[in-house]
Amino acid sequence: MPGSHSGMGLSGAGGRYFSLCALYLFVYYGFGAFSPLITQYYNSISLTGTQIGLISAVAPIVSIVAQPMWGLFCDRFQIRKTVLILTLVASGLAGLFFVGVSSFAFVFLLYLILSFFQSAVIPISDSLALGYAKKNGLQFGDIRLWGAVGFALAAFVTGLLVEQWGPSVLFYSYCLALLIAMLFLLRVPDESEETSRFRVGMLAGMRDLLRLPRYLLFLLASFCVLGAVNANNIWFSLFYQEIGGTVAGVGLAFLLFAGSEAPFMKLAGVFVRRWGLELTLLLAAVCGAARWLWYSSAPSTTFVIAMFFIQGISVGFYLATAAQFVRENTPASLQVTALAIFFSVGGGLGTMLCNLVAGWIKDSYSTLGIYLFFGIITVIGIIPLVLITYGPWKQAAPDDKVEATQ
C-alpha cells in the first residue's frame, strides 16, 4: 500500500483505498461484460446492421445531455456519492430488462434509459477517486488500473459464459457487477473539496469552463482520440473476423488488450512525474493513431494479438492521465461538471460521429476503411494536444486565478 496507508487496518485508510479499487474493478467488470459482447445479443434477436449502427450512434446523444446535467447537479448540491449509488443501482436493473426484450423499438428505448443512468457512473467515480488520490498523495492511475483489470476479466469470462449459456448471461453479469460495486461504494469516502467560497449557478459554471483555452483544446483532442477508442469496441469484432480471426479469438483479444491497460496505467504515473501530463497524453495519442493506421493495412491476426500492448500505451496512458489533466486545469468547484463534459464530448459526441461514419464506411467499403478513418481522426486529435504542449497555452492558469476571472 502507499505510504499514507501504512499501519492502517482495513477499517482505516487502507480499507477505503481497497474499497475504491474494488469499486473500479466491479464497475468496469460490468462494462466489460456488456460492451464487447452486446453485438452477440443483437445478432441473437436478428437486428440488422443498420439498426445496430443506429443504437450505437444515437445512444451517446443521451450522455451528451445527461453527463453535464449529472455533473452540474453533483457540484451544485455536493451529493456525488448519493447520486453514484442511485445510478449504479438504476443502470444495473435497467440492464436486466434486456433479457425479456427482442424488438428493435424496445431495445432502443432500453438502451437510452440505460445510457441516461450509466452516463453518471464514470465521471462521478473519477471525481471521487481524484479527490481521494490528491488528499492521500496517490496517483490516480494506481486506482484507475483496477478498472482495466475488471474490463479485461469480464470480456474473457463473460465471453465463455455467453458461448455456454447464450447472450442473456451478459446482462446478469452486468447487473450483478454494478450492485457489488455499489456495496463497495458505501465504504468509499467523498473527498469533497471546500467550495463554499465559490458557488456558481449551473449555466454560469458551464460558461466559465468553456472560457478556458487549455480545457477547450483538450475537449477537441478527446473528441477525436476517445471517439475512435470507444467506437473500436463496437467494430473490432467485425474487423478481427475480416482479417481471418474467430469469434473466440475476439474474447482473447479483448482480454489481452484491456488487460494491458492496467500495467501502463500504473506506469503512467512515472511518465507524468518525469515528462508531465501533456507529453504523456501526446505519446498516447500518437501510438493510438499508429495503431489504427496499421490495422487498416490488414495485418495478420497473429501480429494483432502479439502487439496487444499497443492498447496499453495508447488507451491506458490516455485514460490514466486525462482525468488528472481536467482536474488540474479547471476550478475545484466545477470538478464533476468538467469531467462530465469531458466524457460527454469524447465518449458521447466523438463516439457518435465515429460510429456513424464507420457504419457508412462499412456499407460502402470495408472494415479496413473504418480503421483508416480512425487513424485519420486520431491524427487530427493530436493537433490540439501539440498546441497544449508547445503552443501559447502550454502553462495552466493557477486555480485561484481561474476562479478570480468569474
From TrEMBL:
Tree of life domain: Bacteria
Record membrane topology: Multi-pass membrane protein
Domain Major facilitator superfamily (MFS) profile: 16-393
Bilayer-spanning residue ranges: 17-38, 50-70, 145-163, 169-188, 209-231, 243-264, 276-294, 300-320, 332-358, 370-391
Pfam families per UniProt: MFS_1_like
Keywords of the record: Cell membrane, Membrane, Transmembrane, Transmembrane helix, Transport
First-listed, main subcellular location of the protein, grouped into a coarse class: membrane
UniProt xrefs under InterPro entries: MFS_assoc_dom, MFS_dom, MFS_trans_sf
UniProt GO cellular component terms: plasma membrane
Subcellular locations according to the entry: Cell membrane
GO MF annotations, alphabetized: cytidine transmembrane transporter activity; uridine transmembrane transporter activity
PANTHER family: BLL5896 PROTEIN (PTHR23522), NUCLEOSIDE PERMEASE NUPG-RELATED (PTHR23522:SF4)
Protein name: MFS metabolite transporter
Lineage: Bacteria, Bacillati, Bacillota, Bacilli, Bacillales
